[in-house]
Amino acid sequence: MKNFIQTVLAEADYQPVRLLQILRAVQSYYQYIPPEAIDYLAEGLKIPRSHIIAVAEFYSFFHLTPQGRYEILISDSITDRILGKDSLMDYLSTVLKVPVGQVRSDGLVSLNNTSCTGICDQGPAGLVNGYPLTRLDRPKADEIATLIDQEKPLAEWPAYLFAVADNIRKAGLLLEQPIANGAGLSAGFARGIQATLGEIDRSGLRGRGGAGFKTAMKWKFCAEEKSDKHYVVCNADEGEPGTFKDRVLLNSYADQVFEGMTLCGAIIGAEQGFLYLRGEYLYLKDKLQAILQLRRDTGLLGKNILNQGLNFDIEICLGAGAYICGEESALIESLEGKPGIPRNRPPYPVTQGYLNKPTVVNNVETFLAATAIVVNGGEWFAKVGTDKSAGSKILSISGDCALPGIYEYPFGTPISLILHDCGAEDVLGVQVGGPSGTFISNQELDRKLAFEDLATGGSFIVFNKSRSITGIVQNFMHFFAHESCGFCTPCRVGTSLLSNQLDKIVDGHGSAGDVVELEALCQLVKNHSHCGLGQTAANPILTTLQRYPDAYESRLKDISYEPGFDLDGALDVARRMAHRDDAAAHLTQVED
What we know:
The protein is an alpha/beta fold. Helix content is 45%, strand content 14%. The protein folds into five domains: 57 residues, no CATH class; 85 residues, Glutaredoxin; 211 residues, Rossmann fold (3-Layer(aba) Sandwich), CATH 3.40.50; 73 residues, Roll (Ubiquitin-like (UB roll)), CATH 3.10.20; 123 residues, NADH-ubiquinone oxidoreductase 51kDa subunit, iron-sulphur binding domain (de novo design (two linked rop proteins), Up-down Bundle), CATH 1.20.1440.230.
């Protein structure tokens, strides 16, 4: 073990900031992280043993106890449940002869649930030793069980079990015009670096992660910070259930994304970039490494790029199963080999980011768009979309629709057209922007895809009228309770309380007062949490309680009330409170 650990540490240059990659290597070899390995790592990296344990305990893909030689994780996302995940999980447990959440007695296989795997358009989906399993059904479950019992290495499993399709259904401004390798850099150097920043500014490009901060302004602020080093980070940790566009962009447009990162490096004066790739996309890593090497070999990355004196390289860092690391400051903490706990802000990453140096963090789609803008000009991009939302938006569409996959639309497109194109019928509602976004009803389908109306990082989950509103919300709330980083009490405790309170109502044990208390808890978690996870975790309840109060009312238990108790009045208060901030004040009144 000591020799193996020394080899792993040498490959990581004994850098504590690469702790996640080191732990991944150890776990891949032993199926868990042994206590003795932690001792060797602490000694070799010169960091406390407690720090290594804290990191290992924080990320769901790390284990301090042995797992099966074949570790199978099945996505528990709502899209997988729609496709029959629950019955499939029961069947898998039977054919694999292992209870869910346990390791088989012979140590050969373990079976458990996991959060969204980013394959929502090809579910039910899962992972085996980190590699994707798509469109699972009973025949595939039987085949997997046989392969495991035969102890076949994954390299000998049939390729179709791991097949992941792009499913690009509608290409638009960006996807139908791929940029040739080097074209963005050549155009940027020919125009001049400052003029290139001006074109990005002229385009009106805003960050495509959901918040929509103006890209040129972020790059300009970072460039103006005086420091010996600047950094570029591409956030490819799309963990929001229903989101999978980055998977497709990195699979088929990676060169364009890397070129956008390189252009950003030229503009802000950075020599180092990082692609933070979500752990569920392990299968893309080798392909992306090969693309990076080819770019180095052809003068598009590394030293003296295109003989213009620009030095810039990119390193891939793989996550380990933590939704919170999609938040930029938590991602930076993770890049530094720490638990992904969001930082206090300010300061912002543009002034104090990675290793406390000025850092630009943008997502995959933003860098993809930046390259196209540099080649085609700012006006080309700005003339598409709306006044406040320039360009197009790439969407991940899944759920109750005939054609799940990737769609690209100009900003300003009505939701009704999007639903028509993806084959959605008998629509109950759409979860826009993932669970942290907004649930819109079938009475709002004339609303527009735009920052000024429905802003989204890209996730569209469609639900038809056969679905239960409270069942959908219940799945989302369990997700948030599981994914809370645990740093602050309002989120750590609040999301669990919300989940439990909702379970009580959905299971038929709640009263009207419980609905009111549920909304009061929503406001507490929303207004007092440390970061965006907690601040948006209550959105599934708030947005559906406002639109579908009857769905909650129908779940309330039939009880005899004390004389004078006004059930209708209490429910009316609960409905009105669904979009108020003074819930606590009204809660006392209703309880009285």
